[in-house]
């Protein structure tokens, strides 16, 4: 990418934020609250999946558990590649309005796997949670909102990818549902970064330090974390 991968502030609604770039202005006085301790509960996840999506959903969840066992302790590049492929192959891109009857719904990994359908946020969240469960440090992962250019045209659409940062100031590797290969951000000239976040912070503009609490600023992120907690992810 021609510019540093330090996204700028933007309104969160995918259908509206391209027209309202100033809506998510960040204040410098906000602190970062610690995230809840991980309480991963496979049995509760199985119960949640069985109740919501039946045997078909449970079968995908068992594939996910098997992947976690296979990749635990492996090289991070292998983890990134296999997690990226797992969700790109098992989730079919479908608009939120079709799946959920809502304009912009962020699904938990359980909901995405159970439905077998989702959009860009759902892929990114599922990959983020899975890599954290494999032991990849959360500070190395950020969900990144971008403008994605379609083909060779100047038409853009709101999109989310997952970035892996080997160091805090490194160029990220981009995990994306519309491109099968994981590539450095500089090779994705079709993406213009806007802002990024994870469970610990929210980055905007040219700042190298988080200036906002994502739980306070991103209501959809807060909502998906609450549902993940009730399902047994955290």
TrEMBL record:
PROSITE patterns: TAT
Protein's UniProt name: Transglutaminase-like cysteine peptidase
Domain of life: Bacteria
InterPro entries attached to this UniProt entry: Papain-like_cys_pep_sf (IPR038765), TAT_signal (IPR006311), Transglutaminase-like_Cys_pept (IPR010319)
Coiled coil: none
Taxonomic source organism: Halomonas colorata
A Pfam family: Peptidase_C93
């Amino acid at each position: 990418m021609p510019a540093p991968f330090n996204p700028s502030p933007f309104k969160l609604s995918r259908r509206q934020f391209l027209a309202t770039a100033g809506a998510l202005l960040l204040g410098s006085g906000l602190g970062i609250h610690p995230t809840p301790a991980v309480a991963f509960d496979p049995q509760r996840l199985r119960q949640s999946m069985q109740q919501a999506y039946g045997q078909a959903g449970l079968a995908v969840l068992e594939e996910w558990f098997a992947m976690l066992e296979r990749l635990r302790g492996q090289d991070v590049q292998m983890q990134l590649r296999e997690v990226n492929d797992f969700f790109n192959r098992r989730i079919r891109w479908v608009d939120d309005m079709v799946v959920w009857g809502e304009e912009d719904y962020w699904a938990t990994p359980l909901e995405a796997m159970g439905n077998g359908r989702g959009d860009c946020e759902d892929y990114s969240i599922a990959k983020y949670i899975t890599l954290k469960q494999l032991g990849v440090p959360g500070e190395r992962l950020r969900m990144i909102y971008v403008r994605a250019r379609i083909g060779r045209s100047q038409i853009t659409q709101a999109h989310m990818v997952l970035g892996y940062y080997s160091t805090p100031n490194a160029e990220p590797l981009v995990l994306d549902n519309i491109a099968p290969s994981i590539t450095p951000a500089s090779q994705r000239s079709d993406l213009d970064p806007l802002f990024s976040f994870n469970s610990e912070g929210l980055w905007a503009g040219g700042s190298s330090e988080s200036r906002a609490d994502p739980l306070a600023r991103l209501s959809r992120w807060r909502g998906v974390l609450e549902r993940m907690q009730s399902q047994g992810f955290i």
